[in-house]
Amino acid sequence: MRNDQGPGVSHVRSGGYQVWVTALLSLNFGILFFDRNALNFLMPFVQPDLQLSNTQVGLFSSALSLTWALSGLMVGRISDKLGSRKPVVVIATIAFCLCSFVSGMASSFMMLLGARLLMGAAEGGVMPVSHSIIVSEVAPERRGMAMGVAQNLGSNLLGSGLAPILLVPVAMAVGWRTGFYLAALPGLITAALIWFTLREPPVEVHDDANPKVSLREAFAHRNVILCALISILLVSYLVVCWAFMPLFLTKGRSFSPETMSWLMATLGVSAGLGSFVVPAISDVIGRRPVMIFFSFFGAILPLAAIYYQGPTIVLAAIFFFGWGLNGLFPMFMATIPSESVDPRLTATLTGVVMGTGEVVGGVLSPIFAGTLADGYGLNAPMWLMLGCTLLAGLCTLGLVESAPRIVARRATSALAAGA
Length: 419
Fold this sequence. Notes:
This protein is mainly alpha-helical. It has 17 helices and no strands.
């Protein structure tokens, strides 16, 4: 197991630059997620307008997840090989924004499906490459929290928190198409900021005394395999929630669109706070116990959505705490694999783990959930979410601790005991 600083952090910059890198990449990914999630929150308006079935609703999430995964697998690997990162993020961001404009122009199921396919291809490589930039620029003792902020803070405050609050009123006032047009503009600004304010991280030099681990060797480690399995299950949990929770709340539970929007926004606030709280806790007490607790705790959200009949504000509180597992995503997608094997493989491993989750979980689960919803009602996707989070919890039990502080503490204790 690798827990040394390694060559990936030999040129770490000032604390202020580390904060700026993390904040800007988090904002950029948040804007991309705002665009990605826009269709889910606008679906109560899009579905009747385009006369879509629940199965077709699921296909939109599956299509984006498929191309997202394939892009992440390829772009992360290419970026690691070429040592070029900043241009990848900038080009992908601009392409993603253009796809949001196309989504707003869609007049049929096939046209909107094509826009989602292109959108996934544009965004798939952004997070793996962003994580590799953070590994190169941020000190190891703050790596867990920095990766959590980059992946989850912006994406959830903007993509899950702000998006429903802004997009639903826009759709009600001037139509759902305008929502897509407005969602695309901010990404062009962050693309420019990344290009002009971030440096290209230094290219790693070959080190015979510290050879780079091959991808085959990386996947021989238990943590990498388990993280890929957890990715399948928790990506399924998330995409099913995004795709069907707005419909379940409005049709299955008869909440108004306005109530649905702020209940979904609660998830964004929860994940935004969890993006740095959950990884920061894992920096102190270890990755494994945090992964175990929050994976099992995620079961309360679908159960409350189905059964809770009390005040809506209490339901929002249950949503808030149940969605805390969102803070685990940067941990099993990037932090744990890079700590377990080789930080120089961060973009590749993140692309593989994220891609596996998106291909198997993100592509198949929305189609499966949509088919179940057409056959058995909108309760069925909620039960699918429950099964996914419980199975993920069982997988976390097999993880090997990788947090540098905990591993170093255990090594010191072992040496002291053997002295």
